[in-house]
């Protein structure tokens, strides 16, 4: 299928508008519960505007108990947009989703640059479109994809800076350092990895230190919550506990499973015939992390979808892509209908059914990983558009 920039732009704009129509019901209704769950249009944007005192102009990290639960760039975005719309929840919502729509269009264009033949899939992916305005994740996803793009173009310094920015927006991209290290090792340029990591760490430090030094307790709240949180919505641990398999020491067990998964990924990447590209392998590490994580927020599909599109080899992979998207959209409605039940709706999804659907979603993501990993192994080399030796990875 021949895909042009204009087609991708048009699809991305239409997807942004369609997602707005979905979320606008809650905006009109005032984000009331359980209606915002029944209609699957809940968003953290208006919820945290008041709950974190952003509506009063308070600095996002001024309080140890009430600071935003995100890294500093995302917190800064939340605070700055709140300064533009003080005491105005509707204006705050509209201002933020306008910026998120622009970011989604930008991300669609990045995907087009990396994988033009399948780039139309991102704005057509139902689970991604349904999740656009739940949270601010697109800020971090945009810089992460740029980091991947520049890395495979052999522009390592720019990539490292962008990865540091992405990590300081949402912590998840830090896991990309594993495939990056393996790629440098396969290229026999391990010193290049240390330089790359040093630039990323220095970027993170430059962004985080001013906040960590001036409001340390508020800055640390995000990291403390993630270190000590128990199993939560969407995780395999929560689902299994609701089905009667309640594990003790879940923090240690999740770390152990993560190490096993990342070790298996490392062995796989080291055994590939040619050095892999970051664009083709980023999806693997994210699926592993999210399958084992203690929480899976509905908007996390926004991280996986562009990476899955980029990792596709040919049309034979479309079946597993759409199957996985189908399971993700099933989960999208399952979490909201279950929360509708929790918040007093007359009808909703009982916890047993929600737990089963959670496991189906996780299994589908692992099937996607296995399929793509198997396809890359059988192809023996990565697609010809990724010519690492020349730096001409894509247009």
Q: Can you offer a commentary on this structure?
A:
Keywords: Membrane, Transmembrane, Transmembrane helix. The chain crosses the membrane at residues 92-112, 124-151, 157-185, 192-213, 252-270, 277-296, 351-370. The chain has one domain. It is mostly helical and 395 residues long. It has helices at 5-29, 35-38, 44-51, 72-84, 89-114, 121-124, 126-129, 138-152, 156-167, 177-186, 190-214, 216-228, 236-242, 250-271, 278-292, 301-311, 318-342, 351-379. The longest helix is centred in the C-terminal third of the chain and has 29 residues, at 351-379. It starts with a helix and ends in a 16-residue tail after the last helix. The radius of gyration is 21 Å and the shape is globular. The chain contains 18 helices and no strands.
């Amino acid at each position: 299928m021949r895909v042009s920039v204009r087609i991708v732009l048009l699809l991305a704009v239409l997807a942004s508008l369609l997602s707005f129509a979905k979320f606008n019901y809650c905006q009109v209704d005032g984000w009331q519960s359980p209606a915002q769950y029944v209609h699957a249009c809940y968003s953290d944007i208006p919820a945290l505007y008041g709950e974190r005192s952003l509506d009063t102009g308070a600095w996002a990290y001024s309080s140890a108990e009430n600071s935003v639960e995100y890294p500093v760039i995302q917190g800064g975005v939340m605070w700055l947009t709140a300064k533009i719309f003080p005491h105005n929840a509707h204006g705050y919502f509209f201002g933020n989703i306008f910026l998120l729509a622009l970011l989604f269009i930008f991300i669609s264009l990045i995907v087009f640059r990396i994988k033009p033949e399948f780039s139309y899939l991102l704005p057509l992916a139902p689970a991604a479109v349904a999740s656009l305005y739940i949270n601010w994740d697109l800020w971090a996803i945009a810089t992460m994809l740029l980091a991947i793009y520049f890395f495979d173009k052999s522009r390592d310094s720019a990539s490292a800076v962008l990865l540091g920015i992405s990590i300081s927006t949402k912590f998840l991209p830090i896991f990309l350092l594993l495939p990056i290290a393996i790629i440098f090792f396969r290229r026999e340029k391990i010193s290049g990895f240390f330089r790359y990591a040093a630039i990323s760490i220095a970027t993170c430090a430059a962004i985080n230190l001013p906040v960590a030094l001036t409001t340390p307790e508020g800055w640390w709240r995000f990291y403390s919550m993630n270190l000590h949180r128990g199993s939560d919505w969407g995780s395999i641990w929560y689902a299994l506990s609701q089905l009667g398999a309640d594990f003790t020491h879940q923090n240690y067990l999740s770390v152990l499973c993560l190490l096993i998964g990342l070790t298996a990924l490392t062995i796989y990447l080291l055994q590939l015939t040619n050095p892999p590209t970051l664009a083709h392998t980023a999806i693997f590490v994210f699926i592993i992390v999210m399958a084992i994580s203690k929480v899976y927020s509905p908007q996390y599909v926004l991280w996986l979808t562009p990476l899955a599109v980029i990792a596709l080899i040919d049309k034979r992979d479309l079946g597993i892509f759409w199957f996985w998207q189908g399971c993700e959209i099933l989960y999208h409605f399952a979490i909201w209908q279950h929360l509708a039940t929790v918040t007093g709706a007359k009808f909703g999804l009982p916890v047993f059914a929600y737990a089963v659907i959670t496991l189906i979603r996780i299994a589908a993501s692992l099937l996607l990983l296995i399929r793509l990993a198997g396809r890359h192994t059988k192809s023996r080399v990565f697609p010809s558009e990724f010519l690492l030796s020349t730096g001409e990875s894509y247009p």
